[in-house]
Request: fold
Amino acid sequence: MNSRATLTLWAAIMLCSVVWLVRTPLNFDLSGFLPSNASPAQRLLVDQLRDGVSGRLILLAISGDRVEQRARISQELATRLRESGQFSLVANGTPPPPAQLEWLMQRRYLLSVGLSPETFSEAGLRLALEDSLQLLGSPVGAAIKAWLPRDPSGEMRTLVLSLMGTQSPNTQHGVWFSRDGAQALLLAYSVAPGLNARAQQQAIEAIHRAFDAARSQSSATLLLSGPAVFTAESRASIEQAATFLTLISTLLVTLILAWTYRAWRPVAFSLIPLASGLVIGAAAVGAVFGMIHGITLAFGAMLIGEAIDYPAYLYTHRRDHEALNVTAHRIRRAMWLAMLTTALGALVMLVSDFDGLRQLGVFTAVGALAAGLTTRWVLPMLNPGSYRLPTVSLWWPRLPRWLPMLLLLAAALLMARAEVIWDDDLHRLSPINAQALAQDRALRSELGAPDVRYLLTFSASTREGALALSERHQTWLDGLVADGALEGYALAAQLLPSQAAQRARQSMLPDAATTTRNLAQALRGLPFRPDTFAPFLRDVAGTRALPLIQRSDLDGTLWASRVDALLMQSNQQWLALAPLSGVKVPARLQADIAQRGGTGVTLLDIKGDAETLLRHTREQSLWLVAIGIAVIGVLLVATLGSVRVALTTLAPVLASMLMTVAALVAMGERLNLFHLISLLLVLGIGLNYALFFLRAPTAGDLGRKTLDDASAAAVADRSRATLAVTVCGATSLAAFACLTLSAIPVLHAIGLTVLLGTLFSLMNIAAWRGR
Amino acid sequence: MHFGRRRIEQACFCLVLAALCPLASAESWGLSQLMAGFAEVGESRARFTEEKHLSMLTAPLRLSGTLRYVRPDHLEKTVTKPYVESLRVTGDRVEWQRQNRTRTMSLRSQPQIWALVDSIRATLAGDLPALNQHYRVAFEGDRSQWKITLEPRQESLSQFIATMRLQGSAQQLRRVEIVEANQDRSVMLIEDARD
Reply:
């Protein structure tokens, strides 16, 4: 192929890729790193992780200024947030307004779970009245006095308790406060899905705006926490870190290249394969998946950083006055192997359960091939001008061979004795620092906020079906709460019972004459004034004629958004959710559910189940890495033509990987999926060193006439190979040392692993290099 | 110099006054002395009988049981007749137990319980500033027979409680009367547990 045709083809592919990329949507939610293949229960889990109730929780704490000011700001902030329509629930300890309570009061018999015909019989009423008498004498007597004449059986009390929860936080000036009184506390559920980082960011900005307006002149400050906040923050911090680290490492890499070539053209041209790899790789992801996760782009750009090595191999291997296409042809085999090993190693990720990792696989494989082909065919067409290369062979210490052997032995021993190597804690993958997590736990315990961990789901084909299914488990749940096995739960049916349940409850209400007679009998001998319960008789009669509660009746009440958050349609199924708080013995819940034999009822342990999925994925990835290595081994045997040669090429690399893992374990790091993926990069980089350095051309390859000439040329080539590996090693070390400094666990894990891997790879080939 | 001498004279006058003060206070026993006396009691137990007069009832409710106070902030009220029920308060946490069910709540979130508990507890603790913070405090009587009248300062309390009267002699609280805003009223008579 002539040069003009090659350049035209390259330009055409680049143009198409750019055009395709512009049309590809960039997805910023974090779902890319959630497993996507799954059983129905797992799918439910992923849906819930993605946009479930638990992810929408925002905890707010107001501190500073005087206590009265904090209370006032809490009130005003809550009002503003409720009016904004961006939150399904805003709670700060203020009781619902009287009108909202009256709405419930009028419908209490339709909403009451414990209602039975007995409630209105003479015996039932007698029991209720005797109990009321006791309550009047108790500490809460004064509080219930107002409701008693309408509600002697206490249906309203039970209803309010089940809606508000029995564990109330500390209250001062009518709003929630921390136990030390320093912080006024609120909690809010955003309407936007939990993992939609951009939408959560908007909700958080709305809170800050409302707070600034509510605060006016006060010096009070606002602290936000909770999953929704973390989602928004992790997006922001990953974006920031990625941008910043990319800039810094690009700068460092450029400096190293500038020092090597001392001419601007080779430095500038070195970026062409990397840029081609990025653009074409990203376009390929867009073509295959229809969209790109923001995180794939960020991590992919780092993984593909290996592509900056390819032009370095080309430029440093160029002999004096040699045409670049001759150099490219001379090193073609090592170059092909470098590309193919990286691509194959990355393609293994395609089998992963993580959408984001599959994208990363395509991105890296296509990107590495594109960068390699650009180096092979496009760079030789561009004249880099003349440049002089420094000699670095003297920098390399002569390492004795026993040193890596000894290290390898130590590593093997350490690994054999290591007890805890893997860590599947989800939090460790989130970019949230430990301090923020501790703060979150503290706020959560003050608020008695649901621990976001356990969720019961009831699914059916219709809305009424899902509601009815959840109702069949409501008495059981109430029993658990009474036993203390559960602190509380929330259910849409608490405010919107199925039509059937409402009708059944309505039919339990006796006619006016019967109620009056039963009440009169029940009152006999009790010290209540005779006309006290007239309002009760009126309410029973009124409820008999009341239309059943429909979803639309909730509009304009506090309860509408609460019901909508707990009752939804997904995948042609209706889903009623019951977030559980304060679960004492999860195994008992699980056993109860199995025993009750409800189809369509699933208990999700959001954290535990997600970690199980993560562990499966990690175990699977470990196998994939092993398969990747085997595939690479076969490729090496096939191309190098000898098992022994293939083994001596692969051995130092595998040794480096083992040493890296051992070093990480010795440093107290617990390994996760991202360490594992980084090891793939170590494999790719290390193999390149071995291919270009250990397999540097021998005298026979050179076709020189005399042995002296040949050996002189061999020495020169060897020195060029040394320079190539030195430059590539230096750029990798610089780039990944930057990542190591990041406070974001995922970036730190990748940086440290690759940094160590590069160091060990360099050390191993230095010790292995031919004598 | 003239100015300096006046300063010294003033200072001397103050010193003399200060020296005389303890003598003066021994003469008139009052609220601060009563409170100081309570502040020395570490734990106290008593029996009580209580009558509640409610507008919706034709006859008062009668309860009896025991009271226990442990410095600094623990108060227990156990009803033994005509049924068993207990209220334990430590700091801001309220534990209310009846019919084998326990409910815990924040004292501040229950203004009615707070009024009842805090007035008695602050008195037994000898914590005058706490009483003054939430109530207008009036004192009458002497060591052998005293009476403290409390009226809530905050609307959050006064909407439920009109007045509380605590009576006693020396370091013994004998009678607590609570008049609610709707004129319902309860009277608690307290006698030493050893009687």
Notes: Residues 698-705 of chain A have pLDDT under 50 and may be disordered. The CA atoms of residues 506 and 544 of chain A lie 6 Å apart. Chain A has 32 helices and 13 strands.
